[in-house]
Amino acid sequence: MKRGYFGMKTILQFNSIYSFSTNRLYAEKIQSNDFDRLMQMYANQQVMATLGGIRSEDKTRDYLQQSLVHWNEHQFGLWMFSAKNTNEWVGRGGLRRLMIDGHEEVEITYALMPAFWRQGLATEFTLACSEIAFEILGLDNIVCFTLATNTASQRVMEKAGFVYEKSFVYFDQPHVFYRMKNNSN
Length: 185
Fold this sequence. Notes:
Distance between the termini: 14 Å
Structural class: alpha+beta
CATH topology of the domain at 13-139: Aminopeptidase
Shape: globular
Number of helices: 5
Number of strands: 9
Strand order of the largest sheet: 1-2-3-4-5-6
Order of helices and strands: EEEHHHEEEHEHEE
Largest sheet: 6 strands, antiparallel
Radius of gyration: 16 Å
């Protein structure tokens, strides 16, 4: 991880890689006791319409366990984020390593509860994650992808500065793939 001055614009307070805040959000590293919140999200048909469908309790437990293992292996991962003014849980998101078309990538992923859609919070969180990726982790580039039909998520990616790279098939569904490069390297 890089040390020293960070030129962050979206993150207002960076306590550590485990917690930070933006203008409207507070993020904390995902924990084993976040299962109920994840289950609430993964049982929501609106949210899961673009994330592969409703998940069972077992699949949600597996996802949470994989997220915790990712943190242990890579020292970064998903955060749970809440609204600073109300402390309501907004959603989850973060950075994760995964294989795409035979290449290891670091993806910014995010999912918000429907009550928080269309408020710019996904973009705010995505910008904060990109700052961590570039300023703290020193990554050269990061990626984002979504279903080809998910135009709302594509707008988030574009507003955050991601550039369309290609269309591809992921889990038998057509997706669009975006990349952002670290311009400070």
